[in-house]
Design goal:
homodimer, 328 residues, Phosphoribosyl-aminoimidazole Synthetase, Chain A, domain 2, 12 strands
Chain lengths: 328, 328
């Protein structure tokens, strides 16, 4: 059987079984969440790793080296955000062809550092390799604030509301502009390109969720539906999403009609947080957060993910998100 | 300027300057040693990452998927050994083509687990990506034993002896057998292939060095001379190595004459530990260790690395070790 037949999520499940080591006294979360987590002496420790590979995750035709650095780092920091953690150290493993200009490697690092400095993260090590294509693998180490707990994917409860931070669909629209599939005016183009190239990890918001008692979160990397599916699967629940409540990014909504919803539901790469909690908790988060918090539906006991329109009628969506290996 | 013009070590120096964040109160070692190190609550924390890329670091023509898993993990654990640390968790980022057989990915993991289980290390996370060539990036997190210190590259002192664990040259000879450049009898072939494919990280020995007061160590990955050069550079000292004392692996020595010394001095990939300490400390280590410990020379104040034969005459070596990017 080939990896393409079981897909990325099938492979991850299988590897989790191969490793076959249930969380012990110290290990809280192993393979299968945004980051691994274990008990340190005074706080929970977190670690996550993600590779960013040329012509799989990015193209140097549409992103500068500095953009790459920013985005590779943002994607990783977002995994710590989704755990409600505080990032602390980063390790960078770099594969680059020998003919790469040194100034490009420096630009790549500058892009990373621009972001790490904002969050007090230090790049403490890594390795460099001569190889093609360019690949950037970043490990982030972090922790919770003292005595705090973590946000996981497996704690969603029927009756809880489903909410998201910020707006969705801008990154996917930005990618379509960058690959010349869409055209907007200059201002909209700048906003949407930036959404794709410079996503901002929701670290402040992740920590806020912990402060207000939220237990369940994931970052929206593959797409709202795909990532919500992950939460439902891990929590053994279902969800009912009202598509009219999904916060489509205003520029996207103003310029695209039906397609804007598709981008918001399945475009991915917005790196907003999806979380579940009681209506009361979400109200508190709304008041405290400096970004929009939008309720888009609820968790249900029936293990199905359904989309409904404002009349309560089922809505069908084609593409549901990004998964590696699977040929569509 | 291209990366190939400044070489791997030049690039690492430059990146260390770009990151430009001197070790602070908590961070002990950033970029430039075998692993990063910082103060935890009751012990020093360690982290290291290494990528293992098809047709750069390995070929599937000569190594099975299980061999790959073992070696990628061993190489990383060796970095923790060189710090005198105790490895604890591993994160695995995998890039594989979609047509890869699932059983091969499982074999890769089995190879890793065979080794991690011996050292109480748990694979706690990672990510999977669809890409070519195959690339395995492993992050190892570890710590020192409580209240213990770490072995670094920067603490070698003139007058100290230079010693190595085990024997050298077997891995390089194994690679030449696997690539059909050398032929040996069946038994020798098996021993040397294994030395290349299944190096055994010197974790027990690294911790022993700490127990007996050694301060300076590095693992021999690029080659004895190249790695000793790293120690000399970091410690701002030189070294005088007596080539007749270098412990050439017996099978290599018995089958190859002059070439055996070259393999031992610059072949690399043996993953033995090179360390420096007083004669008295090294005697204690010798008595306690379950592997051979051999003194091969001494650290000198003059910042040069010289090789001498038994008559004390200078010995010249061509190739000195493996460095990425540099075209020879």
């Amino acid at each position: 059987m080939k990896v393409s037949e079981i897909g990325e999520f099938g492979l991850i499940d299988l590897l989790a079984k191969t490793v076959n080591r249930p969380p012990g006294k110290q290990l809280i979360i192993g393979i299968g969440d945004d980051a691994a987590a274990w008990y340190g002496d005074t706080s929970i420790q977190l670690a996550t790793v993600d590779s960013f590979i040329q012509d799989v995750h990015f193209s140097l035709d549409i992103a500068s080296w500095e953009d790459l650095g920013w985005k590779a780092m943002a994607v990783n920091l977002s995994d710590i955000a989704a755990m409600g953690g505080v990032p602390r150290y980063a390790l960078v493993s770099l594969a680059i062809p020998p003919h790469t200009e040194v100034e490009n490697v420096i630009a790549l690092y500058k892009g990373m550092i621009e972001l790490t400095q904002q969050f007090g993260v230090t790049i403490i090590g890594g390795d460099t390799n001569s190889a093609t294509p360019v690949a950037i693998t970043i490990t982030i180490l972090g922790s919770t604030k003292k005595d705090n707990y973590i946000l996981t994917r497996s704690t969603a409860q029927p009756g809880e509301q489903v909410a998201v931070t910020g707006y969705l669909g801008a990154a996917a629209a930005g990618l379509e502009i960058l690959t010349n599939q869409l055209q907007f005016d200059t201002e909209a183009t700048a906003i949407l390109k930036k959404a794709f190239l410079h996503p901002y990890p929701r670290l402040t918001e992740g920590q806020l969720l912990v402060d207000y008692g939220v237990k369940t979160a994931i970052d929206i990397s593959d797409g709202l539906i795909s990532d919500l599916n992950q939460v439902c699967k891990s929590s053994q629940v279902g969800a009912r999403i009202e598509i009219d409540r999904v916060p489509i990014q205003p520029t996207v909504k103003a310029n695209l009609s039906q397609k804007s919803l598709e981008l918001a539901l399945s475009g991915g790469e917005d790196y907003e947080l999806l979380f579940t909690a009681s209506a009361e908790v979400i109200d508190k988060v709304k008041r405290a957060a400096s970004c929009p918090i939008t309720v888009i539906g609820e968790i249900v006991a029936d293990k199905k993910l359904t989309l409904v329109n404002s009349q309560g009628n089922p809505f069908k969506l084609g593409k549901t998100g990004w998964e590696h290996f699977v040929t569509r």
